[in-house]
Amino acid sequence: MKIVIIFTSKLFACWNSDFDTDEFTLQFRKWNDTEQLLDFFTANENDLRNPIWNNISIERAIFKTIYDAAELQEYFLKTEARQLDHKFRFLDDRQISSKLLDKSKCYGMEHPSWLRLYAILIEPQVYVITGGAIKLTHTMSERIHTKMELVKLDQARNYLLKEGVIDKEGMNDLMEFQL
């Protein structure tokens, strides 16, 4: 695993050697691939019947995903680092206080949005993106692709702890070491 800088020195992403790019870029690539989206929504068509999604058609779901992904990507391109905490939330909605290397999620821009970016919170306004998903179900444990995102969150958190990253200074040290 490697960590790379995305847009600022406060937004990072994991890079798994199995892929040609980092997790942040990979998610937006997936969310813009119409063939991949068609396959995904066809395989998960029953989940689109959930009342929250208003029985949306597969074609409309593809359009919604591409539009929402573009809006979210633009948000990250234009946002200042101090605004990252406005977009990310604790992964567990019941959590009320912060702890070391919290698991976090970011929703897409539409409401409701099924887009999720998952990240580890290093300290306020400093995040490491670990992956993302289209989450159509209530919990992440209901589908294999979201279960895998939980695994990636744990792997990234464990990697950061192993490398001694518990704050921005530790992140800077890791970035220098990786060069």
What would your notes on this structure say?
- This protein has helices at 23-30, 34-43, 58-78, 84-87, 144-162, 168-178, and strands at residues 2-5, 11-15, 88-90, 102-107, 115-123, 126-134.
- Helix 2 (34-43) crosses helix 3.
- With 179 residues, the protein is of the alpha+beta class.
- The chain has a six-stranded mixed beta sheet with strand order 1-2-6-5-4-3, sandwiched between helices.
- The protein is 41% helix and 20% strand.
- It has one domain (2-178).
- It has six helices and six strands; from the N terminus they run ββααααββββαα.
What is the count of distinct domains? 1
Give a count of the beta strands, DSSP E runs of length 2 or more. Answer: 6
Number of helices: 6
Report strand order across the widest sheet.
1-2-6-5-4-3
What is the N-to-C succession of helices and strands? Answer: EEHHHHEEEEHH
Largest sheet properties: 6 strands, mixed
Query: What average pLDDT do the residues reach?
Result: 93
Helix content range of the residues, please? 40-55%
Shape, principal axes of CA atoms: globular
- Strand residue percentage: 15-25%
Radius of gyration over alpha carbons? Answer: 16 Å
Distance between the termini: 13 Å
Structural class estimated from helices and strands: alpha+beta
Unreliable residue runs: none
Compile the SSE list and pairings.
Layout lengths: L1 E4 L5 E5 L7 H8 L3 H10 L14 H21 L5 H4 E3 L11 E6 L7 E9 L2 E9 L9 H19 L5 H11 L1
Parallel strand pairs: 2-6
Antiparallel strand pairs: 1-2, 3-4, 4-5, 5-6
Helix pairs in contact: 2-3
